[in-house]
Design brief:
Layout: H1 4-20, E1 30-32, H2 37-45, E2 50-53, H3 69-72, E3 80-84, E4 88-89, E5 94-102, E6 105-115, H4 118-134, H5 146-163
Length: 164
């Protein structure tokens, strides 16, 4: 009986931190590079891909020249525009990508959401590189991250389709 009171008190003291524990911020162990409210709302609603265009940069005052306008004409490069694919639920977690186009060329692919696991962290750079090289969603699956790769390809294809 002498030991019962200290054992009970220490048991309660040990359980208090467990009761007070709250998980860190984040959602279901996912990688989230972009936490914009529009992305979260789009993910919850599972809507079609959306397209955004980069805003033109201000150039300041107009240059003062005396040359005819024909000689001032310079060839402008197409503006970059980004298209987010839908969030795709896989057995490992949610995958969502954003594709940046310059004209019709894919110049960047970013994972907005992906499962937070070692195979996924290894696969994402490989999937990005493959998509940039192929200029399409017709890319190989990364061994060990099959579910993530399939979700990545589905979101990528939807983003490409949404850009057309």
């Amino acid at each position: 009986m002498k030991r019962a009171i200290p054992v009970l008190a220490l048991s309660v003291a040990g359980l208090v931190p467990v009761w007070l524990y709250s998980p860190a911020s984040g959602h279901e162990g996912e990688i989230s590079e972009v936490a914009a409210p529009e992305t979260q709302q789009q993910t919850q609603q599972q809507t079609a891909p959306r397209t955004t265009q980069a805003a033109p940069k201000p150039t300041g005052a107009a240059p003062k020249t005396t040359q005819p306008r024909q000689q001032q004409t310079t060839q402008q490069q197409p503006q970059n525009r980004s298209v987010s694919g839908p969030a795709v639920n896989t057995s490992e977690g949610t995958v969502q990508v954003q594709v940046t186009f310059q004209g019709t060329k894919i110049v960047d692919v970013k994972a907005l959401r992906a499962p937070n696991s070692n195979p996924t962290r290894t696969a994402l750079p490989l999937l990005r590189e493959s998509a940039l090289r192929a200029q399409s969603a017709d890319i190989d699956t990364v061994s060990g991250a099959t579910a993530t790769s399939e979700g990545y390809k589905q979101s990528l294809q939807a983003a490409i389709d949404g850009a057309r």
